[in-house]
Here is the input.
Amino acid sequence: MRALFVCFGVFVFLLEIFLMWPSLDLVVTHPMKPDEVIRLEVFVLVTTVIALGLILMRRWAAILFSTAFASLGLYLILGSLLYAPPILTITILPFGLLFMVPAVATKQGWNRLKWTGKWPF
Here is the structure.
């Protein structure tokens, strides 16, 4: 179970890098407005803290990560069932179910997760 949460944490780090890469290119070519800089810094801070929390097996990080992914999965499932044509439902539904995996992993590994440790987060 620990390896799964470490993989989730590494996934969040990689997601952060891939989402930040275009923004870094824009910073060089076009100066950013102060509100855009603040938004970018908050995104980096939150994703880094959640990734570290997942790697350190923290319950709060697992709750935040699984809630975000479960809501996205539920959005995909309901959207594909209610609004998409049947051929797209077959394509989108597995991705929606895949986004539910962190919630199931959090439920299964709840006893191994800790609220806090020797570090503040």
Remarks:
- Residues 1 and 109 are 6 Å apart (CA to CA).
- Residues 2-112 form one domain.
- The chain is about 80% helix and 0% strand.
